[in-house]
Design brief:
Blueprint lengths: L1 E6 L9 E7 L2 E7 L12 H4 L1 H5 L9 E4 L2 E4 L2 H19 L10
Antiparallel strand pairs: 1-2, 2-3, 4-5
Length: 104
């Protein structure tokens, strides 16, 4: 069992402290970090659902590309190449101010 102090990435706040316990590569427990000044050990519903989301059989494990016949798994390399190409196309057509980043 390994305990890691980290921050939650479930929303745009990105400051709530968490303690996660892992066994090998598997996430086994999540709790709020009482030492975190942002959340003082409290967890929102999103953070509380992290363990369930991590182990959900419905969780996406590879990028998907929509085609006429439906969604198809593609490689990470292909997905990142397609995203980069699309960003370049948007920048060339509309200028660099047409792109923004939102994380949450």
């Amino acid at each position: 069992m390994n305990t890691v102090h980290t921050i939650c990435g479930m929303c745009g706040n990105l400051t709530c402290g968490l303690q996660i316990q892992t066994h090998g590569k598997a996430l086994v427990h999540v709790r709020g970090d009482k030492l975190s000044p942002a959340n003082q050990g409290r967890m929102c519903p999103q953070a509380k659902a992290a363990l369930e989301l991590q182990h959900s059989p419905l969780r996406l494990k590879s990028p998907l590309r929509k085609r006429k016949s439906g969604w198809h798994a593609i490689t990470w390399h292909q997905a990142l190449d397609e995203i980069a190409d699309r960003f370049l196309e948007i920048r060339e057509k509309h200028g660099s101010q047409s792109l923004a980043l939102y994380q949450g």
